[in-house]
Amino acid sequence: MMIKLTHRLASLVGLTILLLFSFSSLTAELMGNVATIVLVKRTIVSGLFVLIPVMAAAGLTGRIIAGERQGKLIKTKMRRMGIVAANGLFILIPCALILNRLAAADDFGTWFYTLQTLEFLAGGVNIGLMALNGYSGLLLADRLGRRWRAAGSQ
């Protein structure tokens, strides 16, 4: 029971952090205030020290809960989390680090906005995949009832 609670909490915290990162970046960009953009980029890099262990905990506990179980939903959740992990490791973390460095150097040229766009896209993919995994988890736990299970299995 504790492992399931840990999984739910880690997944929810991870998704919330990703949403906060995206919302903060978008808000800072729309405000156009350089000091705010620099602060947001620095805060995101600091937040990685929370996000990375939380996401690792969500993935590990998810694998433990799945155990030897097989099935379409479990396989789909595992595939999604592989994409989330790859996006995080190879796109989002490097983008966050580079964008932080560029913002601190007051370098808001083409390179900055290209990486910012890539970060928004990869972040949106991860948010969407994690939300879908949350829905699939609710289906697996039978927390949505028969009507939703029938709709989700198609």
Summarize it.
With 154 residues, the chain is an all-alpha fold. It has helices spanning 2-31, 34-66, 72-104, 110-140, 145-152.
- Tell me how many strands there are: 0
Succession of helices and strands:
HHHHH
Helix content: over 70%
Could you say which overall geometry the principal axes of the C-alpha atoms support?
elongated
Strand content: under 5%
Q: Tell me the major beta sheet.
A: none
The tally of helices reads 5
How far apart the termini lie comes to 29 Å
Q: Assembly state here? A: single chain
Average pLDDT reading: 92
C-alpha Rg, in Å? 17 Å
| Backbone structural class | mainly alpha
Low-confidence stretches: none
Keywords summarizing the entry:
154 residues; mainly alpha; 5 helices; 0% strand
Secondary structure layout:
Layout: H1 2-31, H2 34-66, H3 72-104, H4 110-140, H5 145-152
Helix pairs in contact: 1-2, 1-4, 2-3, 3-4
Structure description:
The protein has about 150 residues and is mainly alpha-helical. Helices cover about 90% and strands about 0% of the residues. The chain has helices at about 1-30, 35-65, 70-105, 110-140, 145-150. The model has no long low-confidence stretch (mean pLDDT about 90).
